Every structure is written in C-alpha cells, then in structure tokens.
Amino acid sequence: MAERTASRASRWLLDGDGQGSGPAVAWLFLRGLALIHAVAFASLAVQVRGLIGARGLLPWAPFARALNQAHVPLFDAPSLLRWAPGDAALVGLAWLGVALAVAALLGPRPRLSLGINLALYLSFVTAGRTFFSFQWDALLIEATVLALFLPTTRRARWIHLLFRVLLFKLYFESGLAKLLGGTQWLSGQAMSLYDQTAPIPTRLAWYSHHLPFAWHRLESWATLALELGVPLLIFGPRRARRVALGCFTLFQAVDLLTANYGFFCYLSLLLGLFLLDDRDLAIAPAPAPRRRWETPWVLAPLVGCYLGLSLLAGMRAFDPAAMPRWARAVAARAAPFWAVNAFHLFGTITPERVEPRVQTLDAGAWHTQPLRFEPGPPARAPPFVAPHQPRLDFQMWFYGLAARGRPPPYVVNLMTRLCADPGAVQHFFPAPLPAHAEAVRVRFARYTFSSAAERRETGRWWHVEDLGVGPQLDCARARGR
C-alpha cells in the first residue's frame, strides 16, 4: 500500500494529471531561450568595449593577466576570455554569441549552439565582475544548463520537473526574502516606494506611483501572496498550473510596463511554458530514438545534484551561519559557475532615489552629463529600454544607494576617462562630451516623481533636490601633467 501511494505521488509530481509538459513545450522553450540569448549577447556586444575593454571602466585584460600569472585555477575563475582578453575578442565573441543564438533558433540542433553560448556567457560574467552581478544573469545561466538536458522529441519528465523547481525557486525565494527583509511588504509600504525607486522605471511607473496608497498596500500584499502561495500550484494538476501561469504572466506584464530589467521578465515568462501541457500547444516534433545519456539512471544523479545544490544555495543566501562547514565549502566551490542559484529579488525597497549626476567643468562652467537611460533631466520621460540592459546605468543606481561611501572603481575610472579619454565612454552618453574638460565631479540629487499639477505646469516627470557634491577629480592630474 505504501509503495503504491509513493508511486502514485511520484507520477503526480512528474505529470500532474497524467499529461504534463513534454516535447512540444521543450521545442518551444528552446527556441524562446535562443531568442533571449540573441538579445542578451547583442545588448552586451554594443557596450562590452566601454565596460571591460582596454579603455573601459573595469578593464579585463590586466585582471586576466593577474589571474594567469597567479595560476588561479579555471574552476575559480571560469572564463575562456582569460586567454583572449583583447577588445577584438570581447566584441567578436559577443557577436558570435548572437550568431550561435540565431543558429539555435533556426537550426536543427539548438542544444549544441546553446551549450557553446553557455560557456561564452559564463566567460563574460566572470570577466565583467561588477557589471554582471545581476540575478537575471544567474537565471539565464541556470536555465541554459538545464536546457542542455532537454530533448525535443520525447518525454523527459525529470528534466521538466527541474524546470518547475527553478520556477518555484525564482518566486518562492523572492517572496521569502521579502518576508524576512523587514516590515515594508507586510505593512503594505513597499509598492508605494517601488515605482519611484526602481533602477530604470518606465513612464508608466509615474502613473502607477500616483495611484492611491490603499492600492499600493493591496499590491504589496498581493505580491507576497503571489510569491509565497502561488508557487505551490506549480506542482499541482493542470488546472492549478494554469492558475499559476495566469498569475505569473500578469505579474511579469506589470513589471514589463513599469520598469526595465533587461531580459529578466521575458525569461521568467518563458519558464512558465513548463506549466502547460503538450496538448495546449499545436506543435508535434517528430519522434527520435532515446540517447543513452538521457536514460533515467543517468539523469538520476543530475536531479539529485541539482536539488542538493539548490538547497545549499538557498541556505547560503538566507542563513549561511546555519550551514555546516562542508556545506559552505561545497556551495562556495559551485558558486563561480552560477549553474545553481538562489533568488531574492527586492527583499527590501530603498526608501528614496539618490542619483549620482556626473558633471564636467568646461570653459569655467559645470555641465551635467546624464547617462542615456538614467532619470537625468527632469523633463526627460522615463524610457522603455528592455530587453536591452544598460549595465552602467544600473550600476550607477547602486552607487546612489551608498552615495556617501567611497566611490567604487568603475566610478573612479569613469571620471578618469571623462578627463583623459572621453571617446572611450562616449557610448554611454547621448550628448557629445567635452574633449578637454578641466575637472569632473559627481553631484548627488534626490529624485522624486513630480506631482500631477507640477507635470501639467512644467512638463517635468521628476522633482530634483540637490544633495551636494561627491568625489571630484582635477583633469590635469588625471592626464598626468
């Protein structure tokens, strides 16, 4: 009786009501993942030289030489770019990633192309350091690792289950972070702050911000319910999974409309495919013989390893002190590969938006040099930029969170480039930079959305309050004179 019950529970977990996702879902997911890879690599290709090139903000070449000279093992810094750190390789391999993604989208062997892209993307994540510290980079790598084991011509129930586990982690762990992160979400305050303080809001965020506080309180509580309760439906029958898919789709649609998070929302929506059955899709791939490595006895260690590392990654993110020494060592060894991660999006919401505004002194006057996608001039409407991810704009938002602290290396290098080599960073700025600035400084300002009356009268989306001067650099010294 116990064995029969366990067998029935196992079948339910894998198949729900007996159908479950299968080859059709896998075929569509792999093509969607290829499209996201194309976007991610194209977004990288147009900015990688300015980020980590020889004249970039965090040059990779000297760091790669230091790794090689110190004989740092590849397992500790996994990047193929350690042996090709030049600008031509950075740009060329990024565009190669786009080409491979197109091959995966249109070709007969998408997993082969995605496997090569996985190695390339991990290489850029390692080389990019601060600029690749986002959880959607981790999500893309983890989803691609699982995709390598995802056949499109046969059922692969355990692999599909792992994708549902990934979807569960993404939402439930984020909800847990909100629950443990303080009182903002439980009190209903979080969403009254979120629209205004998101890294790169859209213009629709202005309208959302001005909704009544009672609505924001409901949004905050609904977010907690969605992230902590709805994920349990992921492992339920077909009807429950459809409810979960509807909730997740609505949630991500609101995110897409009000904030720019690169390819994150699109990838999150794509993972929702594993909540569908094959009968929900009009795709029927031709059957093919099972390969030896796809047999259950080969996949069992993969499943156990993934679930175990997921547990360790979660413990490391939420309560590392409770981990035994061996568990911390295993989690630390796995961390550089980003193959299994924990997700804790927006555990707390910053209460105010402090923007670091870069200014150049030219002809005796200070001129603000706004980045392309940051709030910038008060009358400039917040942009729609996703799925492109402007990584410098994102990082400057993080710098604003610690405005009174010591500027990070990329900010120091940005100021130095504006003095001595403005052409190296011109891509990040919409207006031409002065060729021979006298000085560069960062001046902080508090940005709040303008009121409806202020916007009607002045056309301004933002109200700006100056907070004073931060770091400053004399350009004569920066040029070595």
Order of helices and strands: HHHHHHHHHHHHHHHHEEHHEHEH
Rounded to the nearest angstrom, the distance between the terminal CA atoms is 85 Å
How many discrete domains?
2
Overall mean confidence score, pLDDT = 91
Strand order of the largest sheet: 2-1-3-4
Number of helices: 20
Q: Strand-residue fraction?
A: 5-15%
Number of strands: 4
Characterize the overall form.
Answer: globular
Content-based structural category:
alpha+beta
Q: Please give the share of residues in helix.
A: 40-55%
Low-confidence stretches: 5-10
Question: Main sheet, how many strands, which sense, barrel?
Answer: 4 strands, antiparallel
The whole-angstrom Rg is 24 Å
Task: Please characterize this protein's 3D structure.
There is one protein chain. With 481 residues, the chain is an alpha+beta fold. It has two domains: 17-337, no CATH class; 353-478, no CATH class. Helix content is 54%, strand content 8%. The chain contains 20 helices and four strands. The chain has helices at 2-15, 23-45, 48-52, 60-69, 87-106, 110-128, 135-147, 157-180, 184-187, 190-197, 203-209, 213-228, 238-258, 264-271, 296-318, 325-334, 391-401, 409-420, 452-458, 475-478, and strands at residues 353-362, 365-368, 439-449, 462-474. The protein has a four-stranded antiparallel beta sheet with strand order 2-1-3-4. Strand 1 and strand 2 (365-368) form a beta hairpin. The chain is globular. The N and C termini lie far apart (85 Å). Mean pLDDT is 91; it is low at 5-10.
